[in-house]
Design brief:
Elements: H1 3-15, H2 21-28, H3 32-44, E1 48-54, E2 60-66, H4 68-105
Amino acid sequence: MNDDLTFQALRQLKANPKLSQRQLAKALGISLGRTNYCLRALIAQGLIKVERFRTSQNKLAYAYLLTPEGIETKARITMRFLKRKRAEYDALAAELAQLTAEAEAEGLGRTPRD
């Protein structure tokens, strides 16, 4: 499992521990089978634990709770994610500035923002 998927899964489960696997799969944009695999991997790594509860329809369901290690891992991954996204943002801002300067030099004036 890669950091991005781990981050997104932990983020979704922290926000709503009672998500069904189907709901989590939809939120992550992955298949139900891959979601099951990811949850099993997170459990095996000790990042989440599973608790059973009864839903209003008298069916058993699960709550996926982050463990202290899961919370710490999510924090570490979040910092790496932010660092990577800031670098992408800085690179995009530099490219936009360069393209704007080129457009102005070619007499196109200030380009409109969409």
